[in-house]
Design a protein that fits this description.
Strands 1, 2, 3, 4, 5, 6, 7, 8, 9, 10 and 11 form an eleven-stranded mixed beta sheet that branches. Strand 7 and strand 8 form a beta hairpin. The chain is built from seven helices and eleven strands.
């Protein structure tokens, strides 16, 4: 079996230390401070669906949108295995830059730095247009991204991560290349994956270009999309962003009411 058949499992295993429960509580709290009655929610770049399921358990009817077929399959499997009522959590394939659900939502989110995967100006503008198109004057949106002052203060460096589960043993090497003029860090990931049952070892590589943003340019994109900034801060703490804060969230509303 190809190593790519295990892609979603590799992703989840490497992120096993991520506190999805805490993050879902943080997201729900922020959204409901602005829109207390928010019920319907769309999540752009939902990955394997862990945020979606936890937000659904907090009363949201969620639609997760994911480009990767591997991730989408895992998300759908999770949804089927959950004890949630039918229709409480749904998943569909789509691109953040062009997806159209044909309806608006009370809450629109894009988490785990999905916005930073939009590296070109046209891509960023398209992603903001997608956010705006799925909102009304009563909606709220939340997204997070790489914070420019922190990235340029604490430059990315080569890192090695090891992880395993009952099926796989994983080694991932992350080698970043920093393009300061474009505000993009392209991370070359090299994976070595051992199948514990067969002893077979596979490897593959991926390039992940990630854009970091400065507050001024994000404010311009927010304004251009017909949105207004409600709050920004350090992810999970709500502290003011600093030169050591890589992950920053933005909470926005529609300008018209």
């Amino acid at each position: 079996m190809s190593v790519f058949a295990y892609y979603a499992e590799i992703y989840d295993t490497l992120n096993a230390g991520k506190d999805y429960e805490k993050e879902a509580e943080f997201v729900a709290e922020l959204l409901r401070e602005v829109a207390p009655g928010a019920r319907t929610l769309v999540n752009f770049g939902c990955g394997t669906g862990q945020h979606d399921l936890l937000l659904a358990k907090r009363g949201f009817e969620t639609l997760g949108v994911e480009l990767s077929q591997h991730m989408l399959e895992q998300a759908r499997a999770r949804g089927l295995e959950s004890n949630l009522p039918e229709g409480q959590v749904r998943f569909t394939q789509g691109d953040f830059r062009s997806f159209d659900a044909g309806r608006s939502f009370d809450a629109v989110v894009s988490l785990f730095h999905v916005m930073s995967y939009q590296t070109g100006e046209a891509d960023v503008a398209a992603a903001f247009a997608t956010l705006s198109a799925h909102m009304t004057g009563r909606s709220v949106a939340l997204f997070d991204l790489w914070h420019g002052p922190a990235v340029e203060h604490v430059l990315p460096e080569t890192r090695v991560r090891r992880a395993e589960n009952e099926n796989l043993k994983i080694l991932r090497i992350a080698e970043p290349h920093h393009d300061g003029s474009a505000h993009v860090v392209t991370v070359k990931f090299t994976f070595f994956v051992e199948n514990k049952k067969t002893g077979a070892i596979s490897s593959f590589e991926e390039l992940h270009p990630m854009r970091y943003f400065f507050p001024e340019e994000i404010r311009e994109h927010i304004k251009a999309a017909g949105l207004k900034l409600r709050e920004t801060g350090e992810w999970l703490t709500r502290n003011s962003p600093s030169k050591d804060t890589w992950s920053v969230y933005y909470l926005v509303e529609k300008t018209e009411h």
